[in-house]
Every structure is written in structure tokens, then in C-alpha cells.
Amino acid sequence: MKKVYIGFDVGINGCASAVNQDGELIGAIALPHVKEVPCYRKGKTRSVLDLLKLIKWLNSFGQITSFCAEESAGWGMGIVSATTSAYNNGLLHGLCKGVYPAVPFKTVAAKTWQKDLFPDETWSKSFSIDQAILKHGELTMFRRPRRTADGYADSCHIAEWSRIQCQ
After folding, report:
1. Rounded distance, CA 129 to CA 138, Å?
2. DSSP letter at 77?
3. In sequence order, which residues have a C-beta less than 8 Å from that of residue 33 and are 6 or more positions away?
4. Cα–Cα distance, 72 to 11 (Å, whole number)
5. What are the backbone angles phi and psi of residue 34, rounded to the nearest 5°?
6. Residue 32 and residue 48: Cα distance in Å, rounded?
7. For 79-121, what is each residue's pLDDT tens digit?
């Protein structure tokens, strides 16, 4: 049975990707969200991870070797975005540790995986997308929709970083 490494780029436009033991992309999903948690504004709700859809996707891989999520919140993030990101990251941690307790769960700072995988490069969203295309091919998810293209690319890189760390 092949090993499966899941990488998460957590955020409102976040994604998850799965690579196998050879570093081949075997699955990807825009993180599913529902608007259900009350926000600080009266009558508004916050978008949070749809855990049931995410579990269904994760279960499609059979046995998972490791999970790795990018740490949040990012530098300069607004209070609402930071709160949503932290809330979703907490849900993701709880889901992975609660539903898959035997699977290692790591977090990694963006600068760490970027430096480890591409040590001599200046990071940008377009660079991330270009590198994902070089590794996995010209897939539509790396181009459209534009708002999630870098999330797909980054989650592929995070999954690859996790795969390398587990060897």
C-alpha cells in the first residue's frame, strides 16, 4: 500500500492536497466551508470548515501517513481574518487528532517549508504556482479559479515537505 501525505493551506481560500510516497499528486480539494458560526456583527456568520465533507475526502485515501498544516495567522492579517483562520486551524487540528489519532499531525511555518524546498528563491504566489506546475503538470486548479490557485499550489508543496520530513 502506498503512503499518503496530506498538506493543508488553511484559510478562507485554502486547499488540501495529497501526495503519495513518490511525490505524485493523487488528490486535491478546495477546503469546504459553511457559514454557521456567529460573527461579532449581529446577524452575520463566519465561514468555517465543513468537517463532514473534509472527512469524506480524507477517507477516500484509505490509510494516511501524515498530516501537515501551514501555521496561521499570517503577518498583517486583519482581526476577522486572523480569528477565522485560527478557528479553522483549531477545527482542523481537532478533526485530525480526533478522527485519525494514530496519524502524525505537524504544523509548519510558511517560511520554513518555502526555504527547505526552494532555498535560493524569493517567494511569491506566482512562483508557488509555477513550481507546482513544473512538478505536477499544467492542471486547471493551478490557474482557475484565481483566488484558490496559490492555495492548491501551496498545499501541494506542504504535502511534499511533509513527505520529505517523514523519510
Report:
1. 10
2. -
3. 12, 47, 48, 49, 50
4. 8
5. -130, 150
6. 8
7. 767 777 788 889 999 999 999 999 999 999 999 999 999 999 9
